[in-house]
Amino acid sequence: MLGILIDQGYGAVAIQTDNLEVIKPIQDKPIGGSNLALIRRIHHLLAQLDHWSISYISRMDNQEADTLAKLAQEGRH
């Protein structure tokens, strides 16, 4: 999804997640590179943006996005 936003010309992105464990590795500046390929890829994509932020949102407050993600997932099968 992040790559699509960049391809569409977006220069700023606000990311919200209900997973606290993913926020810190994404916020941390890569020093010597992350061991996780996914985190390295995310850092590479974020470096192409003028501005980005990531924040925690509770699962209860994130129900609408969760429902949309599930619908998109079902559409792939």
UniProtKB/TrEMBL annotation:
Q: What is this protein called?
A: RNase H type-1 domain-containing protein
Q: Name one GO molecular function term.
A: nucleic acid binding
Q: Pfam families from the xrefs?
A: RVT_3
SUPFAM superfamilies in the record = Ribonuclease H-like (SSF53098)
- Identify the species of origin: Gossypium raimondii (Peruvian cotton)
* Domain RNase H type-1, residue spans: 6-72
